[in-house]
Design a protein that fits this description.
CATH topology: Glucose Oxidase, domain 1
Order of helices and strands: EHHEEHEEHEHEEEEEEHHH
Structural class: alpha/beta
GO molecular function: 4-hydroxy-4-methyl-2-oxoglutarate aldolase activity; metal ion binding; oxaloacetate decarboxylase activity
Shape: elongated
Mean pLDDT: 96
EC number: 4.1.1.112, 4.1.3.17
Low-confidence stretches: none
GO biological process, one term: phenol-containing compound catabolic process
Helix content: 25-40%
Cofactor: a divalent metal cation; Mg(2+)
CATH class: Alpha Beta
Radius of gyration: 22 Å
Keywords: Lyase, Magnesium, Metal-binding
Number of domains: 1
Distance between the termini: 65 Å
């Protein structure tokens, strides 16, 4: 496939982003039928942060971040840079303090990188949100071409330019741009349901009862014993 930089992508409205910020990664993942969740090795450098915004994807050869520099030029304020490599390997720190400083200057919200990050202490001091696969101080080159805003395989999910990225302490979830409205409606419905469950818990009702789980235990052959030496019949 020819290498390219796609300059123009879909970006959700600010109202849509505002609505998504009400929720967390776990809720959105559940709301879209348990799909879109990146693998659990994607962890935040700084806990307690949340980012929600459109993805600008970057596909680089391992150990070369030329395309990251190219992507900065096409990013707009509020974008989230999603970086991966052609092989899935991390052979060097693809971003560090200097790139993060440039991203902040452009108003980029954060980075999700299925590779390695370095200059971690400095990035934490800057307060810039990064979700990364690894921390690795080894340097990279700026020699090899790749893709910006091509469909990218990142931590077990396919991300396209303009898809919505949400990241927090629970991980990273992708919502396809075609599904933004439906997933948001499902998230709202789920939160209403959870509010009811919280009231039941506060009232002392057991989840075994309000989820009707006793019959399921019976179906699975699980029995109650009064003491350990009771005979199971």
């Amino acid at each position: 496939m020819n290498k390219y930089i796609l300059k123009n992508i879909y970006r959700p409205s600010e109202d849509t982003l505002k609505d998504y910020r009400k929720y967390d990664v776990s809720t959105v993942y559940e709301a879209q039928d348990k799909t879109g969740l990146m693998l659990p090795y994607m962890r935040p450098l700084i806990e307690g942060q949340q980012i929600v915004g459109p993805a600008v994807t970057v596909i680089c050869p391992p150990g070369d971040n030329l395309m990251v520099h190219a992507a900065i030029e096409v990013c707009q304020p509020g974008d989230i840079l999603v970086i991966t490599t052609t092989s899935g390997e991390y052979v060097g720190g693809m971003i560090g303090e200097l790139i993060v400083t440039a991203l902040m200057k452009r108003g980029i919200q954060g980075v999700v990188i299925d590779s390695a990050t370095r200059d971690v202490a400095q990035i934490r001091k800057l307060g810039f949100p990064v979700w990364t696969r690894a921390i690795y101080s080894k340097g990279t080159f700026k020699n090899k071409g790749g893709w910006v805003n091509a469909p990218a395989a990142c931590a077990g999910q396919v991300v396209r330019g303009g898809d919505l990225i949400m990241a927090d302490d629970d991980g990273v979830v992708v919502v396809q741009k075609e599904n933004l409205a439906a997933t948001l409606a499902s998230a709202e419905k789920r939160m209403r349901k959870e509010a009811t469950v919280k009231k039941q818990i506060a009232a002392g009702i057991l989840s075994m009862d309000f989820h009707n789980l006793r019959g399921r235990l019976s179906e699975q052959g699980v029995v109650y014993l009064d003491q350990v030496d009771d005979e199971i019949k």
